[in-house]
Amino acid sequence: MVTFKADRPFLGVPLSIKAELKCCYTTTEQQINPTWFKSVRTGQSSPVAVNISENVTTRLDKADKELCYVLTFDSVQLNDTGMYQCVLNYSNHFSPGTYLQVYKRLKKTINLRESTKNKILTAEGVLLLLCVVLPSTTLLFKSKKLHELEKKKMKKEEENIYQGLNLDDCCTTYDQIERSQAHGPYQDVCNIIEEEEEFQLEKP
């Protein structure tokens, strides 16, 4: 009796890299002849036996009661992409299988040295700092200039107020008020007496 273990469902490998596929199982039979088959598309009716070569080899690994039939690609190619399953003793009982996907790595469009990368990062840091500092400095300068303009405006308004006053008139008015307050009552009595004398002299 043969019982298959769960296979790895998917394996992605870059082009020209080594890849290994495993078909693990337990069995009570004495002699097992595993064979690897490949299907270009999943569900293909007629899988094709894998050709063993210098680049493609097989081996049998044993671990306790479990056996693993390993298919090894020393350098995978794009046409190695497909669904791989193993069959024991040429029966119709296939393992769950593993889909092998071979892909090309993306090439670097720009090959930069570490020193160049560090310079670029430094330049980005300086630009970021300038973007933060310059607006703040400009705003502070504008605020200071606006404050100075307000002070000049207030000073000019005060000068205009003083210019509108006639200081000579103010002094004359002030002197008159002081004179009237100091001599007002006595001056009134004298004026009354003088008026009475003039009236008596005019009588026939």
Automatic annotation (TrEMBL):
SUPFAM superfamilies: Immunoglobulin. Coiled coil: none annotated. The keyword Lyase does not apply. Residues 12-92 form the Ig-like domain. The keyword Iron does not apply. Keywords: Immunoglobulin domain. One of its GO terms (biological process) is B cell differentiation. GO terms for cellular component: B cell receptor complex; external side of plasma membrane. InterPro entries: Ig-like_dom, Ig-like_dom_sf, Ig-like_fold, Ig_sub, Ig_V-set. This is CD79a molecule, immunoglobulin-associated alpha. It comes from Seriola lalandi dorsalis.
